[in-house]
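Whether sequence alone determines local backbone shape is best considered at the level of individual chains. When preparing material for the folding task, we compiled for one chain both its residues and its backbone structure tokens. The sequence in question and its structure tokens are set out directly beneath this paragraph.
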Amino acid sequence: MNMKERIAARVAKEFLEGDIINLGIGIPTFIPNYLPEGIQVFLHSENGILGVGHTPEGDKVDPNIVNAGKKSVTVNEGASFFDSVNSFAMIRGGHIDVAVLGALEVNAKGQIANWAVPGKPVLGVGGAMDLIEGSQKVFVTTTHMTKNGKPKIVNENKYPLTSHRSIDMIVTDKAVFHVRDETLFLTEIAPESSLEEVRLLTDASFQVSENIKTF
């Protein structure tokens, strides 16, 4: 299991029976392969699918069935297809239990930036703004550091905020943070990391929970 898969597997442990879950692009797309046994959840893709299945392989790939990131997916028995208008009505109407998103930055209040980089062209905002505002819970999956070795969890965002709402949980390759009352709480650390390393690589201030676990 590589780093991105481990992050996805950790987030999947948070899902509850019957949850309707929207998966963003990037790391969240690994989640269908790590759903916990014994519970049934329903994966939503904002391009108009409810009932996304695991990642297809070989001759199971159908180029006409893709997620919002244009990656091939399978669909489970009973899946439904609809247009973007109805998909966003589900999101904006509060019918998504959990949204799992990527992020460029997360600040000390748990507010994320994931839609624009100043000075660089972007293809579009996508559904992140709607998902943060409309979903019951929002989880963020991201590497702890940028490709240039800079912290992604920062005191203040230098990129435009996606929403002023604080998300609920951050899972990186180094740690797990829960967000409560606009405060970050470190709850878990990766086996190969340490509290000292997390402090060194995290620009934002955070509280340390009493019983730190590994994941």
Notes: The mean pLDDT is 94. Residues 3-214 form a domain with the Glutaconate Coenzyme A-transferase fold (CATH 3.40.1080.10). Residues 3-12 form the longest helix (10 residues). The first strand starts at residue 20 and ends at 23.
